[in-house]
Design goal:
Layout lengths: L2 H13 L2 H8 L3 H15 L4 E4 L2 E4 L1 H25 L8 E6 L3 H16 L4 E6 L3 H6 L5 E5 L10 E16 L8 E3 H5 L4 E2 L5 H12 L8 E2 L3 H9 L5 E4 H7 L4 E7 L4 E9 L6 H14 L5 E2 L1
Parallel strand pairs: 3-4, 3-5, 7-11, 8-9
Antiparallel strand pairs: 1-2, 5-12, 6-10, 6-11, 6-12, 6-13
Amino acid sequence: MELRQLEYFLVLCEVMQFTKAAERLLIAQPTLSQQIKILEQELGTPLFHRIGKKISLTDAGYILLEQARTMFQTLDATKEQIQQLDSLEKGTLRIGALPGELTNLVSSISLQFMKQYPNIQVHITSNEDIHEMLRNNMIEVGFTFSLHSDQFDQRFEETALYKEAFCYIERKDNDMCKDVLTLPEALSKPLVLFPNAHLCRRILNHAAKTEKLPVTPRFETSSIDSIFSFVEQGLGGTIVAKTLFDLYGTSALQAYTIDHPLLQRETLLITQKERQSSPTLQAFNELLAQELTKFTLQLS
């Protein structure tokens, strides 16, 4: 079994058509067919069901697909680590994060990282399915919330970074002479909130539902910048996670803690257990720990 054959196999699995796979590999289709046939003969079992011009993976094909991906992933990590043994002068760090404030937080920290290591390329991708991106080797590390990580998978290692509460935010000139609000008190005010599909809003809706309280915002928008702008202009207050206030709050705004056990969430860093962290990721994690101390968070 040769690496070249496995490379052909992976491309064929991706496009599921011999003609397109051969075009992508820049080889003749008969050559591709012959190499796949040799691979099947060496393994002693078919890797594809062939029905006319259509193909699909057999059970053996699925096993080889997973193992081949793992093998090439290990080879890529090995090459990267060898190149970076002496210093962090070269390298690429691929990061995945949930859309919204996590992407913004990671981007802010990545900016500091790139100032320290200007020759390192950093790619940040926003996606709702961090686990799938890790499975497909699209990223090296992912950031998500515990509420999004509800399917335990032994292939991943989850590291809790911090817990954060939700807070009510309004203009300072509306000072209420108290630091902590109850959920009914916060919901009784004019509110500018995220739409129902947003994670912050879903957490708020769930907490309100347990108390049988209505959530009736004056205005809804998916734009973080717009929410804080409207609050600063006096349109109303908002209820968001604490990191959003740390990232977007201005001196004109005041945050009040909301006393409710369900109004909190935990941020997780997720990696693949079988993949050794590259020197680039190790350096990023060190900076991450430093940067998180600048926020008023409950570090895990």
